[in-house]
Structure formats: C-alpha cells, structure tokens
Amino acid sequence: MDAHHLALSSLITLYFFLSILTPSYCTDYERFANCSRPYGCGSIQNVSYPFWGGDRPEYCGREGFKLLCQENEIPIIRFEALDFRVLKIDKSFPIMTIARLDLWDGSCPQKNFNTTLNFTNFDYYASTVQNITLFYDCSPGVDIPDGHGFTCKSGDTVTRNNAYFGEEFLTASKLQDLKNCSKSILVPILRAALMNELPSGVPALQEVLNRGFDVDYNTLHDTACKGCLESGGHCGSNSAHQFVCFCSDQERSYSCPDKRGSRWWKYTLGAGSCLIMALQILCVIFIIHRCRMKKKYDPSGTTDLEAFVRNYGPVSLNRYKFSDVKKFTNSFKVKLGQGGYGGVYKGELLNGCLVAVKVLNASKGIGDEFINEVASISRTSHVNIVTLLGFCLEGKKRALIYEFMPNGSLEKFIHSDNTETTTMPLGLEKLFQIAIGIARGLEYLHRGCNTRILHFDIKPHNILLDENFSPKISDFGLAKLSPRNESHISMAVARGTIGYIAPEVFNRNFGVVSHKSDVYSYGMMILEMVGGKKDIDVGISDTSEIYFPHWIYKHLEQYNDLGFPINMTIEETAMVRKMILVGLWCIQTNPSDRPSMSKVIEMLEGNIEALQIPPKPFLSSPPRSPVEESSTY
Predict the structure, then answer these.
(1) Maximum Cα–Cα distance across the chain
(2) % of the chain surpassing 70 pLDDT
(3) Active-site positions?
(4) Mean pLDDT along residues 366-387
(5) Which of 198, 216, 234 is the last residue of a domain?
(6) Which among 247, 235, 255 is positioned nearest to 59, based on CA atoms?
C-alpha cells in the first residue's frame, strides 16, 4: 500500500469513528435517568418520546412536543397562538386526538384564528378529519337553516346568531349571504362525529367540537428511536434539536453499544449503514426511471393528475364531465377574458348559479397550473378570495369552475382611457376600500391558512369584483404552498407578470423569495390604482411603469406635495396619500424593509399622521409594454 492510499484509508477510518462515536458529558448519566421517567397528566399517562413537560426535561423530547398540565388534570399542547386540549395519545400508530381549548364547553373563540398546526411535526390524519366553518355574530337577515345555528359564551354573555356549515354547504350564494357575519374560523372535526349523530341529522355541535380531531405526529426520528430503545437507551435531543440516544454511560448518536463491548459491533453498524445508503440510492434510481417511463407513455400527465385528485380528495368540489362544461357554457359562447393559462367563459349551472369557467390550455406543461389552482384555492375560505366550485379533468381537457364576478376585473376600472370600461369609473373611496379588501385577502393567504399560500401574480387583472365591487383575489396558477414556519422558499425560475415582479424573484442578490414578494406586487398595484385615476395628474403617460414611483419621490422630496386637485375633500386627500405611502413602503428593494400584509392593513386603516415617507428604492420591477401587460413567466 503506497502513502497516498494509506493516508486516504486513515482519513476514512478517522471519519468513520468520528461519525459513530460521540463525546461524553458529565450530565449523560443524569439525562439517562431523567428520560426514563414518562410524562403524566390527568387521563394522559405514561407518555414518552417525543413528548416532554412537567418533570420530564426538554432534552427527553423534541421541539414542539411540549405538554402542559393545566390544573393538574388537563394536558395542553400549544401550536403557535392556539392551545389544544389533548384527549388521547395512541403511540402505536402514532396518532394524537386534540380539541381547541378556546372552543371547549361552549365558549366563544378567544382569538379569531383558523385552526393551525405546526406542520413540521404534525399533520391532519386525513382519513378521519374534515373541516367545518363557524360564523359568529351574523346579522338578523342571514338565513341560518334549522340545525346550523348555535350559541356560545363570552364571559357571562351568551352570544347568539351564530352558524356552522360543512364544506359541502358553502356554496357561492351561501358564502355571499354569510358576508354579513362579523367573523369566521375554520375548525377540523372527526368525520364520524357528524355521521354518528341523531337520526334527524341535527348534530350537537358542542359534542362534535369536544370530540376533537386526529393529528399524525409521525416523525423522521421514529426508526432511530426504536433502535435506541432496543439497545437499552432512552430517546432525546441535543441543544441543536437533533436526535440523540441517552445510554447508561454517555450520549450516543443512534444506539447504545453491545454490553459485551465487542468493537465489531461498530463495524457491523457501519456496514449496515452503507448497505442502507446503497439501497436508498438504488431506490431513487428506480423511482426516477419509473417516472421517466411513465411520462414517456403518458406525456399529458393525466395519470399524475388523476392520482393527485384521488389522493388530495377535495371533497367539497364537484367534478364535471367536459360535455357538462360545454352544456352550461352554451359551447363556450360568451368569453369573459383570456389569461396566461387559457380562456375564461361565462356559464350557468342547472340550479341557475352563474359561474366563470377557465378552460386550461393542454399545451401548458403537464398540469402544473391545474394542481396549483386546486391545491391552493381549495384550502381557502375568505370573502376576498374567489371561490372554486368544481373542476373537469377528462384526458387532456381540464377546466376550473369559479363563482361568477359580474363586474369583471379591477383592471378595466382604474384606467380612465380604457375602452373596455362599460360603467362609470370607481370613486376614490371605493378604490380605497378595494385596496383594503385585497390586503385582507393576501393577509389570509399568508397567515390565515394552515399552509402559507404565495400567489406570485398579484395585479389588477387578477382582482375580480362582485356585484358590490368587493374584491376577490383570483388566478392561482403560479401560486406556491409552503409551511407557515418557513421564512423563504426556493424557486427554479422567476414567476409573475412583468411590472409587478419583486426584484428578488428575478435576481436572488436582492434577497430571498418569500411572502414579501407578494407585498411588492401589491404595492405596485395600489400605486397603479392611484396613478390611473383621471383626476390625479402625475405628468406621465403610463403610471404603472418604473417612472411613477420616482415621480412621486421627486414631488415628496422637493415639495412634500403630490399635486392633488383642489376640489378633493380632506378625506379623499388622506385616502390617496395613504395608498401612495403604503405602496412606496411595499416596493422597497430590500424585502425585509417591506411591511407584512397585517401591517399594511394597519397603515391603511390608521391615522395618516402616523405614516412616514419611506426611503427611495434604487431598483423597481422592469417596465412592461402593452403587449406584455397580461403575460406571465
């Protein structure tokens, strides 16, 4: 063996032993003893890893699995801002049954939050869970069917005129009626809880809520923990929240050594690890090969889409045949518009409900836009998000059926020279309320859903207006889903419409892509809403281009004035100034300098005197030409 081979062999041996062996600490003996004690609280007893709490230290469990013992008999687990009562823990599956504490025993919710989980550690047990929506403080005119009304307690006050509905009842007309309720929250329940109620079909809501719902807490460390326990150790984690095995003598990475002390045990473990790694590599190669063969024989991706629909299971959506779609659109007679992924047509369902049907182009990929729309929008329920009523998937023919928006898109109302405008231009007060409504919809997408939804194509063309000119965010073809605890996401290519894309989306040197990228697009849009008004002269021909923000800064810096017409009221002047200052904050070059959508709402609804002039950004999104106006990456 020459010197090079000997050196290489020595390095490999050193790396092997450094990987297998871990240093011992003086606290290891104590940790081994402490982690042998299970957790107990009330009806929940003998709970071990990954849970911790009480006299069971944090290093005996995992981050996010802390159990609190309230009043010495009620086990509680906390996810972000909500506390949940732990009803049962089944370690054999492993499944945990939990119920919202603020809804226990007839209480009104203390916080107006949808039920959210830490999806890093937990997920809904889909086979047993479904969602219902609770609506509170509805006006007397809201139609609440028998069996769907309930009361709740807020202190000593009993609140009435509340209603709850399953996903199958929330039609477009019903959602429109429920706008007159002051707030709503989404709550998971057990499917069997509603199915096994009284024969009349009237469920006892409180009983259903008190039964809670199931979550799966299966983790990647379960296999490692099993090996640790079999070797005589106790499972835990270190200060970096990584799995460790506490042995009687010291802390180990995976399991405790053979008590006979044979050093060949380490070599066997190393050989086994190499074998497992080799098998994993072979499995990956096999899966890649199967995927390529699958696409070869199924280039349209229809099989993948069918699997997605079957596994994802949007039970609240109706599935239509393409012949039905042609029938209720009268063979696509009335075209409402054209988007980047296909045409949109007016239709009418058999029950008389008007709908907008988006027919997706078969040439656009293998169905990414279909998956994006269904996966993202079917998770939402908000007055400022367009409602998806159904879909069609038949070979290469794909269509999405939405609620109909009689006033079309915002785009045709904000430019006074737009020839498509068929009604009087919107007033400043109405535009201001539309800006707030869009902000609320985006805040819901970023914070209100169980999974954060990033839209990536916020622009006037994708904001639809109902009969009352209330805005609804639409077109989720470019959307991306991400866990709520992740601050940024990865993207292979830029996405969005030229003129609204945040700098970091097309150049990562400006920062990471995150929900702040939607904030940038929102800022460009509300600046365009202000600049497109006929009665505000900004001195340039295209206010949505790069020069409009610079024109504003020039006037603010030189004159501290935006040249508002003298016939504007004090209230109108304040609304315009708010929209401009908020828009300028939103288009800051550095994503961390932009406000969240919650802060945007606070700024728009707050005092104008509290708004400061932001720094001037040194780069804006590229200007767009009329041809590029509705194009997307």
Answers:
(1) 93
(2) 73
(3) 457
(4) 78
(5) 216
(6) 235
Q: What is the CATH number of the domain that holds 397?
A: 3.30.200.20
- For residue 310, which phi and psi values (nearest 5 degrees)? -70, -40
Task: Find how far residue 245's CA is from the centre of its chain.
Answer: 35
- For strand 463-465 and strand 388-394, is the pairing parallel, antiparallel, or unpaired? unpaired
Residue 463, CA distances (Å) to 2, 153, 267, 407 in order: 71, 38, 63, 11
Residue 300, classed as helix, strand or coil, is: coil
Whether 297 maps to a domain, the answer reads no
Q: Determine if the peptide bond prior to 50 is cis (ω within 30°).
A: yes
> pLDDT, tens digit, for every residue of 522-547?
999 998 888 764 334 444 444 444 45
Q: Do residues 397 and 431 both lie within one domain? A: no
pTM over 0.70: no
If asked whether residues 179 and 198 sit together in one domain, one would say yes
My answer on whether 511 and 621 are in the same domain is yes
Q: Flag whether 19 is in a domain.
A: no
User: 376, 403, 430: which is the final residue of a domain?
Assistant: 403
CB of 50 closer than 8 Å to CB of 219: yes
Distances (CA, A) of 337 to 243, 408, 505: 54, 9, 27
Range of the domain at 517: 411-628
Residues with Cβ within 8 Å of residue 243, at least 6 apart in sequence: 221, 224, 225, 235, 236, 237
CATH of residue 452: 1.10.510.10
Verify that 201 and 175 share a domain, yes or no: yes
448-464 pLDDT, tens per residue? 776 788 988 999 999 99
Among 525, 475, 521, 527, CA closest to 501: 521
266-306 residue pLDDT tens: 556 667 767 877 787 787 777 776 666 655 544 444 555 56
